[in-house]
Amino acid sequence: MNNKLYGNLIFELSHSGRRAYSLPENQFGHHTLPDFCKREKDAELPECDEMTVVRHYTNHSENNFGVDNGFYPLGSCTMKYNPVINEEVASMASFTDLHPHQPIETVQGALEVEYNIQRALASITGMADVTLNPYAGAHGELTGLMLIASYHQQRGDKKRTKVIVPDSAHGTNPASAAVCGLEIVEVKSTSDGLVDVNDLRPLLGDDIAGMMMTNPNTLGLFEKDIPEIAKLIHECGGLLYYDGANLNPLLGAARPGDMGFDVIHLNLHKTFSTPHGGGGPGAGPVGVCEKLIPFLPKPHVSKTKDGFVIEDSENTEEFSTANIRISGYLGNFLVILRAYTYILTLGKKHIKEVGPFATLSANYIKECLKDDYELPIDTLCKHEFVFDGLKDKSTGVTTMDVAKRLLDYGYHAPTIYFPLLFHEAMMIEPTETESKDTIDGFIEVMHIIAKEARENPELVKGAPYNTPIGRVDDVLAAKHPILTYRQLINDTEESV
């Protein structure tokens, strides 16, 4: 490999006069741009030949890591393998060439997909109906909270402006509540990592709009007191919201609707194998119980004797002032299509195996590694669990060091320093899609790193060594990021 092409910026490979393209002859005549459209000086762009450009960006693309490259044990994120059949279906011209403004009679197939997955997700979660409109998990959270707020406002119960959030919650929970204009009230966890019901009771009152929960929670533990929690929230007039980020281990085992949840958002990129990361595209459908159906966002797909129709605010007789609009159309259709393909591929029989296998994988890793890594809550977990760094603290090797060293062995690091309940948190989620061979390889490397930490701690503290960029100063990078390339032009440093 040419290290110069691999390690340098494209600007550093630039040579005046080199070109990687040729434009066709002008067939449209000469047109003068008005001055306000022109730059004051020419853009300083790199000048490279085609081979240099192709090799440079191809080499850099190989630095990307994803579920197609290797094991990706990010806790709380469920980096599940995305089956190729999902991509094949989503790339069919019958779906990609559609336009949302086509006459409804020409898109009956697409509407049937949307209707069917609405019903499938409702059945899987135990909810009465589902909207597919939200574009991401956090967008779904916001939508769910807006539904809760609309429900209380429509009933004239405007005093309910507080939302209870556990101290172990995902960071998006309080953020979404704040964006929705609601006040956040924190409820503490017990030493077992579960919601403290005794701490919850004094928080309840006629000002509580609802409570947000993840079950299993962020520590990967099933909230066994959920029947009591649901009863308390409903008795005080509030609604119970389910953060669907951790739904994966419940498939085939339990349904949030049966636990007493009134609203749920789903991360299709976590539980239903659609692409994850890179800023999108995403999808965060929201399910609701029977009494909240009138508050679902429009548009919404329904089935009639004559076919599938799109309900919109203009053509519905329901309580229109409560209807919210959170996206232009019917969500990210091709992402939804991928999830629908996944559900159909597994079928009713095999989708029930997802949760048990995800739980088995997590407990297997936990039990194999707990002699080398500190397990603060030693109990049966669900899809994920949390270590509190290495068991031997005398080495001075931190969770960050372990994460960096994993890169040298070709593994993506798990989630680190989250949740905040533990100082050296290391959150691992293997999902159900990984083979035992892959999991055993990860376990072996984790044992090797623990041994290195005991015998040669400085080796681990200096990692990584086999990556294009070594250990960076995270604080300096955060406080003083270099966002532009600076080069000497006529002996003067200028930004490009």
CATH class assignment of the largest domain: Alpha Beta
How many discrete domains? 2
Structural class: alpha/beta
Helix content: 25-40%
User: Hey, roughly how much beta strand do the residues contain?
Assistant: 5-15%
- Number of helices in the DSSP assignment: 17
The low-confidence parts are: 315-321
Biggest sheet: strand arrangement = 1-7-6-5-4-2-3
Q: Whole-number average pLDDT? A: 91
CATH architecture of the largest domain: 3-Layer(aba) Sandwich
How many strands? 14
Largest sheet: 7 strands, mixed
Separation, N- and C-terminal Cα atoms: 27 Å
CATH topology of the largest domain: Aspartate Aminotransferase, domain 2
Query: What name goes with the CATH superfamily of the largest domain?
Result: Type I PLP-dependent aspartate aminotransferase-like (Major domain)
What Rg is obtained from the alpha carbons, in whole angstroms? 26 Å
Tell me the overall shape: globular
Keywords: Oxidoreductase, Pyridoxal phosphate
Protein name: Probable glycine dehydrogenase (decarboxylating) subunit 2
Catalytic activity: N(6)-[(R)-lipoyl]-L-lysyl-[glycine-cleavage complex H protein] + glycine + H(+) = N(6)-[(R)-S(8)-aminomethyldihydrolipoyl]-L-lysyl-[glycine-cleavage complex H protein] + CO2
Subunit structure: The glycine cleavage system is composed of four proteins: P, T, L and H. In this organism, the P 'protein' is a heterodimer of two subunits.
